[in-house]
Amino acid sequence: MRSGPVAVLDIGSNSIKVLVACRLASGRFESLKSKTLDARISAGINRALSRLTEEGMARGLSAIVELLAMAAPFCPVRTVLVATSAVRDAVNGDEFLARVLAATGHPVRLLSGEEEANFIGRGLTRDPALAHLRDFYVCDLGGGSLECLTFRERRIAQALSLRLGCVRMTEKFVSDADAPLSSDAAIGLALYTKKELKKSGFRFDLPAPAEAVFTGGTVTSIRLIKGARHGVALEETPATVPVETLSELVNELAPLTLEERRAVPGMPAARADIFPAALVTLLALTEAAGITRFHHSLYNLRWGIAADLLDAE
Predict the structure, then answer these.
(1) At CB < 8 A and 24+ separation, what contacts does 105-111 make?
(2) How far apart are CA 29 and CA 207, in angstroms?
(3) Are residues 158 and 284 in the same domain?
(4) pLDDT for 217-226, tens place per residue?
């Protein structure tokens, strides 16, 4: 006999996602539906006063309504909507949440950075492919923020959210997203990332070479590009990625225009503008942490909230 199902809708800075999941009699969690829609509600997130635009809110609301409709046929016993960095940091975030409630009847839980990081960590513990890991870092790069965690004996020992998301960093360092990424922009972005990590007090103190798990659309895109080059689906690409892959992709894609990047096989068109900055951010992070390779997991924030809901039944 299974428990659930439950539906979790994650209103992120760059994309909005839904997960419908249940728990089987064996205790294992199963995904019944998972879908991501690009909405980019965070455009303008790097301004001194971050404000959601009318266009961004309209895109976000449309995606939310569409994803809720996809979840409805599974008759979830509970449906939870959460919002993260873009709404959290926007001066008119409450207005957007009120629009969502009026249009759908669902209130939205606005997560703090710490809550976001902890739910990501909890979600990862549900990934059977990571069951062998005991002490490891977790890094989740979103559009508005970067979550960093340390696990010791599979328990969260550190959790931190930093304003280093790839949409935010693109707006901060890339003056023309249609043009190639300049070396000055890449250097400035990398130095800024390392400075913010150091200033945050996050301790990269696991014995080298440390294990790490990365989540988020950037790593998914890396695997999609690699899969396209070998004619295989994402699921058939290696889930462990050497850091050299980041360097190779930066060197390959930074000189390209946005139009040329969009033409790269496997490249999600909606991420082509922010992808170079995302790669540079992750590369700077791996250098700061002494990480030489990382595991990719699709079990992140939504899975953590789903686990919370199912454990409460």
Answers:
(1) 106/9, 106/68, 106/79, 106/81, 107/81, 108/11, 108/81, 108/82, 108/83, 109/80, 109/81, 109/82, 109/83, 110/82, 110/83, 111/82, 111/83, 111/84
(2) 32
(3) yes
(4) 999 999 999 9
**Any domain includes 17:** yes
Q: Give DSSP secondary structure letters for the chain.
A: --EEEEEEEEE-SSEEEEEEEEE-TTS-EEEEEEEEEE--TTTTTTSSS----HHHHHHHHHHHHHHHHHHGGG--SEEEEEE-HHHHH-TTHHHHHHHHHHHHS--EEE--HHHHHHHHHHHHTT-GGGTT--SEEEEEE-SS-EEEEEEETTEEEEEEEES--HHHHHHHH-S-TTSPPPHHHHHHHHHHHHHHHHHHT----SPSSPPEEEESHHHHHHHHHHHHHHT--GGGS-SEEEHHHHHHHHHHHTTS-HHHHHTSTT--GGGTTTHHHHHHHHHHHHHHHT-SEEEE-S-SHHHHHHHHHHHT-
Q: What would the pLDDT profile of 138-174 be if each residue is shown by its tens digit?
A: 999 999 999 999 999 999 999 999 999 999 999 999 9
Q: Are residues 46 and 156 in the same domain?
A: no
| Terminal Cα-to-Cα distance of the chain (whole angstroms) | 13
**pTM of the complete model:** 0.91
**Structural domain total, the chain:** 2
Residue 270 structure tokens: 């909606």
Residue 121 lies in a domain: no
Chain position carrying tokens 């992750």: 282
Full domain range(s) for residue 14: 3-114+301-311
Is there a single domain that holds both residue 136 and residue 283? yes
pLDDT score for 254: 95
